[in-house]
From TrEMBL:
Transmembrane annotation, as ranges: none
Keyword line: Hydrolase
Top-rank taxon, per record: Bacteria
PANTHER family: AB HYDROLASE SUPERFAMILY PROTEIN C4A8.06C, ACETYL-HYDROLASE LIPR-RELATED
Hydrolase recorded as keyword: yes
Family of the protein in this entry: Belongs to the 'GDXG' lipolytic enzyme family.
Classification via InterPro entries: AB_hydrolase_3, AB_hydrolase_fold, GDXG_lipolytic_enzyme, Lipase_GDXG_HIS_AS
Presence of keyword Nucleotidyltransferase: no
Source organism per UniProt: Actinocrispum wychmicini
Gene3D superfamilies noted in UniProt: alpha/beta hydrolase
Record-given protein name: Acetyl esterase/lipase
Lineage per the UniProt record: Bacteria, Bacillati, Actinomycetota, Actinomycetes, Pseudonocardiales
Length: 330
């Protein structure tokens, strides 16, 4: 499975024609990608089938995740911690008049700016924008709408310093859901939309309506469906998963900025990305859906070791430069 789909509409002209991006995805996964998928299937996925979701103390999971994220940053990367625990990550030549607000993944229950420093640094280098890694509150201690409210508050603060068309919002996995929720909240609050949005392997349908069937047909080497479901419920807390701010796939999307979605075709969450793309297109929006063959959940995390991760991050930069400032008419 390999494709990159784009969609339309901006007046009488398609946004796709206006952007004119040429994207060629690899036809087959690299040797490194195949080895990674096999390693994950034999280790993380196997362990996930034995250890029940929620049985391991979250403190241990969070500390382990943070430890993995303590890798050296690319040469020349600037890093600054705010009083709130957020991290500013900027490549050597990052612009000062724009910003990318990044919402990290981790199933809403783990992850932090520390775990995503490396990825943020590479995205900063690719886009030419400094990245603000938000230290949003985690579930289950802080269930919905805590993280969503943190994201909206951060966006409001950025509007005080940057032109909206120079702001990009994005995130991976659970951060992809928070990105979609943020866009819906921005529309609801009638705030200016950002110039673009990116979603990397987004976890969008917290009910997991398609996870089991998709995983049965093609076993995800990384994410067990039952773990994703547990994370979604932990985040929702007492709120129904069908709440309008949680059900980001069906929320009204008119006026959203151009969206880039990148996902691996091994993921049980692939259907979430496909449904989001269809939803955006029905609303008349522009969406570039890139399905990368043989790639695991948030494969970008494995840059610079994975050729596809490097290529995908490069595509993020090209997308942001091409579409930032072009929003679709409501």
């Amino acid at each position: 499975m390999i494709y990159s789909e784009r969609s339309h509409v901006k007046g009488d002209e398609t946004v796709g024609e206006a952007i004119a991006m040429a994207v060629e995805l690899p036809a087959t996964p690299s040797v490194a990608s195949r080895l990674l998928a096999r390693l994950m299937a034999a280790s993380l996925r196997t362990l996930g089938g034995v250890v029940k979701p929620g049985s391991t103390p979250l403190r241990i999971v969070r500390e382990a995740f943070d430890a993995i994220g303590r890798t050296p940053l690319p040469l020349g990367t600037k890093i600054k911690k705010t009083e709130d625990g957020d991290l500013w990550i900027a490549a050597k030549d990052a612009a000062e008049d724009g910003v990318l607000l990044y919402l990290h993944g981790g199933g809403f229950v783990c992850g932090s700016p520390r775990t995503h420093r490396q990825l943020a640094a590479r995205i900063s280098a690719s886009t030419g924008l400094p990245v603000l890694l938000l230290d949003y509150r985690l579930a289950p201690e802080h269930p919905f709408p805590a993280a969503a409210e943190d994201a909206l508050a951060a966006y409001r603060r950025l509007l005080g310093s940057y032109a909206p068309e120079r702001i990009v919002v994005g995130g991976d996995s659970a951060g992809g859901h928070l990105t979609a929720c943020l866009l819906a909240d921005i529309a609801r609050e009638r705030l200016p939309m950002p110039g673009a949005a990116i979603m990397l392997s987004p976890f969008l349908d917290l009910t997991g309506s398609e996870l089991a069937d998709r995983d049965a047909a093609f076993r995800d080497p990384f994410v067990p469906p039952e773990y994703a479901l547990w994370c979604g419920k932990a985040y929702a807390g007492p709120t129904l998963l069908t709440h309008h701010r949680l059900d980001v796939l069906t929320v009204r999307k008119h006026g959203w900025p151009p969206v880039l979605i990148q996902v691996g075709d091994t993921e049980c969450l692939l259907g979430d990305s496909e449904r989001m793309a269809r939803s955006l297109r029905r609303a008349g929006g522009y969406c570039d859906l890139q399905v990368w063959p043989g790639q695991v959940h948030v494969f970008h995390w494995f840059a610079p070791l994975l050729p596809e991760a490097n290529a995908a991050i490069k595509q993020i930069g090209e997308f942001v430069r091409a579409v930032s400032g072009q929003t679709v008419a409501a």
